[in-house]
Amino acid sequence: MNPALSKISTTGNDSDKLALSAFMKALAILSKTRDYNAVAAPFADFKNLNEDENSGGTFRVHGEKIYNVIVHFEITQEPPHEFMPVVGNLGLLFETGAVTLSDVQEILGDWYRDPVDGVQASFADAYFNAKNIAPEADYLLCASTKEGYVETLNPSAPVEMISASWQDNRYNTENRPW
Q1: Are 91 and 42 within 8 A, CB to CB?
Q2: Which has the higher per-residue pLDDT, 64 or 54?
Q3: Dihedral sign of CA atoms 112, 114, 116, 121 in order
Q4: Partners of 6 in beta bridges
Q5: Between 54 and 170, whose confidence is greater?
Q6: Whole-number mean pLDDT of the chain?
Q7: CA angle at residue 37 from 35 to 40, to 5 degrees?
Q8: Looking at the predicted structure, is the pLDDT value of residue 171 above 70?
Q9: Of 13, 27, 46, 143, which one has the fewest beta carbons inside 10 Å?
Q10: Phi, psi at residue 109, to the nearest 5°?
Q11: CB 135 within 8 Å of CB 129
Q12: Which pLDDT value is given to residue 101?
C-alpha cells in the first residue's frame, strides 16, 4: 500500500498526485483530531470553492482522476468540545470512470462489501480498514461505487469517491473484520 506507486498517482497528472498525497495526510491527521483547520491544512494549495461558516470546504483539484476534495464540518454537541466545528466527513471525489475499486485497493488495502456478497442491493459500498492509515483511526473508510443492482462488487467497478466519516450506513455491522 504505497499511494505514490498507485495507478492513480502513476497515470494521473501532478494535481492528482498532490491531491492524493494531501488526502492521505488529512486521513492521518483525522485519526488524531477532528479539528477542521488541522484536517483542511493539507489542501491549502488548492482553491477552496465553498468555504462558509455552515459546511466547510470544497477544494478544487484539476486532475485527470480526481476533481474535488470535500472537508465538511458539523457543530458538535459532545463534551469537551461543545459548539465547536469538527470534521464530519472527508471525501476524495473522482472523475466518472477514472478510478476503479482495485485502484483504491492499491492505496487502502483489503476491503469488504456492504451488504455482504450474495445480497442484491441497489447500491453497495466497499469498506476499508482505517487502522491501515493510523492505528488510532476511529472513522469508517468507505469507497462508493457506481455498481448497480448486483450481488457482488467487481474490482473493476468504478468508484465515485472515498470518504471518511463516523456515520455508519452499513447494511449489516455484525461479523465484520473491522
Answers
A1: no
A2: 64
A3: negative
A4: none
A5: 170
A6: 87
A7: 105
A8: yes
A9: 13
A10: 90, -160
A11: no
A12: 93
Look up residue 126 and give its amino acid. A
Residue with cell 466545528: 85
Number of residues in the chain: 178
Which ranges in 12-66 belong to alpha helices (H)? 14-30, 36-40
118-141 burial, b for 16+ CB within 10 Å, e for fewer? eeebeebbbbbebebbeeebebbb
User: For residue 93, what are the contacts with CB-CB under 8 A and spacing of at least 6?
Assistant: 66, 67, 68, 69, 70, 160, 161
**Higher per-residue pLDDT: 59 or 53:** 59
118: left (phi over 0), alpha (psi -120 to 50) or beta: left
**Sign of the CA dihedral running 45, 57, 28, 14:** negative
Q: What is the pLDDT of residues 122-147, one digit of tens each?
A: 677 889 999 999 999 999 999 998 77
Which of 53, 52, 51 shows the shortest CA–CA distance to 43? 51
Eight-state DSSP code of residue 151: S
Share of the chain above pLDDT 70, in %: 92
pTM of the predicted structure, to 2 decimals: 0.90
Paired strand residues for 60: 68
138: cell is 476511529
